[in-house]
Amino acid sequence: MPSLSKHHAGGATAEYSKLLDWGLRLTLLLALPAAAALAVLALPLITTLFHYGRFSAEDAWMTREALVAYSLGLVGMILVKILAPGFYARQNVVTPVKIGLVTLAATQAMNLAFIGPLKHAGLALAIGLGACLNAFLLYTYLRKQDIYAPQPGWLAFALKVGISVAAMAAALWAAMGPAADWLAAGWQWRCAMLTGLVALGFAVYGDCLFALGFRPRHFSIRGAD
User: Fold this and answer.
1) What single-letter DSSP state applies at residue 222?
2) pTM
3) pLDDT tens across 172-183, in order?
4) Which residues span the domain enclosing 55?
5) Distance (Å, rounded) from C-alpha 172 to C-alpha 69?
6) Cβ(75)–Cβ(35) under 8 Å?
7) Closest CA to 110 of 102, 122, 118, 121
8) 183 inside domain
9) Residue 208 counted as domain residue
10) pLDDT tens across 159-213, in order?
11) Count of structural domains, the chain
12) What whole-number distance in Å separates Cα of residue 188 and Cα of residue 175?
C-alpha cells in the first residue's frame, strides 16, 4: 500500500501496475496450493483437530463439506486484499465499496439458492463464491480504468503453477490413506501423519516449481523509494 501510494503520487503508472502484477502472482503462487491442500486434507485436518469425545464421525464428515466449500473461495478472499489497495492507494474508496455491496447482495442470493440442496455447505460455498466475485469485479475495474495491465508471461506462469498444484494434490490424495483410518486412529497417529502430509505437500510443490524454472529471485521486488 505505501509503495502503491508513492508510485501513484509520483506518476509512475508503469511501476504501479508492475507492483500490482507482482502481488497477484505471489498471491496465486501461495494461495492456490493452500486452497488445494485444504480441500484434499479436509478430513485429516478435521479429525486431527476435533474428532474426539462427542464430536462424531458424522460431525466430521459434515464439517468436511463446509471446509471444502470454504476452500473454493480462499484464493478470492486473499486476492481481494491485493486488488482493493489498488484503488485505496489512489484515494478511490467508492469503487471497492460499491463492489462490496454488489458482492454482499450476490452472496445473500446464493445463500438462498444453495441452502436448500447443499444445507450448511451451501452457506460456506456462497461466501467463497462471493469472495471470488468480489475479486473478479475489482480486477475488472482495475483493467477497465487502465490502473493495471498484466505483465508478459502470465500464460506460462499459470501453466507452471497449475501443474505444480495438481502434482501436489495428487501426491496428498495418494498418501493420506482411507478415511476410515483417520476416523479410527488416535491423536498421536493423526498428528504424525498430518505433519508428514504437510511436509510432503511442501516438498512436491516446491520441487515441481523448481523443476519448472521458478527461483526465489523471480519474486523479489523493491518497494518505492
Assistant:
1) P
2) 0.90
3) 999 999 999 999
4) 2-152
5) 18
6) yes
7) 122
8) no
9) no
10) 999 999 999 999 999 999 999 999 999 999 999 999 999 999 999 999 999 999 9
11) 1
12) 18
